[in-house]
Structures are given as structure tokens and as C-alpha cells.
Amino acid sequence: MKYTGYIGTYTKGDSKGIYSFTLDTDEKKLGEVSVAAAIGSPTYLNLSKDNRFVYAVANAGEAGGVVAYSRNTETGELKELNRQLLQGASPCHVSVNDENQFVVSANYHNGTIQSYEMNAESETLYPSLSIKKHEGDGPNKERQDGPHAHYAGFTPDQKYVAAIDLGTDKLYTYELNKGELNEIHSLHLTAGSGPRHMTFHPNGKIAYLMTELSNEVVVLAYNEENGSFKELQYISTIPDDFTENNQGSAIHISSDGRFVYAANRGHDSIAVFSTNSDTGELTFVDRTSTEGNWPRDFALDPTEKFLIASNQESSSLVLFERNPETGTLTLLQSDVTVPDPVCVKFLNQ
Question: If we measure between CA atoms, which residue out of 278, 269, 272, 312 comes closest to residue 294?
């Protein structure tokens, strides 16, 4: 079987925009890397649940925003539908709800969360419906001089938008009422931790949040009744004796909920944790080198027998085989070149 994936990149060097690639699960090999859409720095992207649309953040000189593409389900070709840009820096994260009605983005530089509505007739994005700016800062004056929103995504029940701010050490919960974002809850995490990204357990009751500054996974209980979160555990993603610069990046979970994976930029590794089926808390299993520099993101393939990591600074994709019983990773391939890769996404199954 061949599975198609997409890669968001920085276009500050040789990259042209969004790239596509294939994973051949029989040959256990990555290949067929090509430009799927030429656009400025589409560092993060997401697909609609039915795989018909791709939404990407984009930079257009002095303006930034979100771009909508239709996807040819036979060829994988991306066709731009429209873009919604505002003056200023581009966002760093984008998500779409299951019904493909609303898109939300997080802007690191502006410290804002934005929402957009999909035009059901033209399949284009309306201008931003709501913009919410966070307030505050944190103890790390170099990285937390003000709000720096890094993630905005829908909760598993699709009732709320969870937003993470690295600058304020907060996890916010918003209600999305006809496209309008209304804050209903916030959780202040450990000061200086610098929260970045999160993923939810398949049971919908536990979330795992990756911190960039303290290099930890925070285990959280999620209350779907009111959208609140409660801290359960903090666990490090790097060795105790590692003292060089490291910045936590991506976090993902296997669909059976048994293993959580977290990437380390600096230590250049992926940490593997097993989950407690009763409490959701984590136990460290292993760390595997990404065979490159600065792993910004990674993804499990649709079979979940493989994991693909993107090394931003060494411009490479790396393929690992995954043991579904132990969660551990075995290197298969590290010679695939993609310029300045950031985000990795496979088609939804």
C-alpha cells in the first residue's frame, strides 16, 4: 500500500511551499517527494476530515493568514480556493473542525487566536470572524515577554477550542458560538514551562500537553461538561543529565491510546511513553535519535506501523518502523531530502 502525506515548510531557503510524499508500506520506504502548492512559509497545515480540503498558514510579505485548498482525491493535487490575510506576522498553527465549518489559527508573534467560517456554497473561507488577544507574560524574559499563542485546536467532542500560549504559560478554553470565540476557562501551568502543543487520548477524557521550555509532557484531565482541564502529572522528555539547549516540539498519541510520542529539538530525539489505562499517566519507555537536526514534527502513518519525523535544520525526513506492542522505534530510512520541513500530515483514514 502507498499512503500520501503533506509537509509544511519554511520558504526562507530552497523550499517552494507545501510538499507531498508517499509511504510505501510494503517496501518500507518514503518517496515521490514533490511540490504540491507553491506558497510562502506554510509551516503548519491540516486536512478536513474527508480529505477534500487542506488549510495552511501562509506568509505573504507583510501579511499573514490562512489559505484554503481543495484537494483532488485521485491525484492529490492542491488547488487554491482563497486566502484570508491580515497585516502582520503569519500564524503558526491551524485546525479545522470535523464538520468542516470552522477553521481556527494561533499566532505566536501576535499572541492571538482567530476563527474563520467556511462558505458552504463556494467552499472558500470568509474573513476572520473573531480575534482574541491573550494578555500576560512569564518568567522567561527572552521567550515569555508577552503572549505567544502556539496552538488552537478543537476538543474531541467538538464543543470547544483549546488554545495554548507559550508566553503566558496558560491553556485556554473557548466556546465557538456561530464563529465567535468566547473564553470560558483557563488553566495556569507551571511558570516558565512554555506550553506548546497538545493531543487527546482516544477516550476523550485525557489530554497530553508538550512544553517547549521545560521539556515536559503534562498529563491533563479534561472535563467535557465545562471545558476545564486539571493537571495530573509532569514528566520530562529529556535525560536528567542533558544540559544543552533543548526545545520540546510535537506530541502525538497512537490510536489505541497506549503510547505517547514527544519530540526534542536539541537532544534531537523522540521520547516514547506508555500510558496507564486507568489514570492516563505516563511511564517512560525509550528515546530514539531522529538522525538529524531539530525535529520540528512527526506523524504516525495510517497503519501506525511507521513514524515519519521532519528534521527542520538538516532538511530531512526520517522513517521509523514502530512496534505496536512496545511502542519503540527502529530506524529504516534517513536519506529523504525536503527543504526546511516543519509539519507532517497524512490523509485521514
Answer: 312
Per-residue pLDDT reduced to its tens digit, 3-32: 999 999 999 999 999 999 999 999 999 999
Residues facing residue 107 across a β-bridge: 112
What are the b/e assignments for 258-269, b being 16+ CB within 10 Å?
bbbbbbbbbbbb
Select from 68, 120, 57, 121 the least CA-distant residue to 90.
57
Domains (range + CATH), the chain? 38-187 (2.130.10.10)
Q: What is the predicted pLDDT for the residue at 74?
A: 84
Give the model's pLDDT for residue 61. Answer: 86
At position 103, the amino acid (one-letter code) is V
**For 325, which DSSP code?**
T
Strands 63-71 and 53-60 come out as antiparallel
Q: Classify 261 as helix, strand or coil.
A: strand
- Distance CA(349)–CA(6), nearest Å, equals 14
Q: Phi and psi of 164, rounded to 5°?
A: -115, 135
d(CA 166, CA 111): 9
Across 193-221, b (16+ Cβ under 10 Å) vs e yields bbbbbbbbbeeeebbbbbbbbbbbbbbbe
pTM here?
0.97
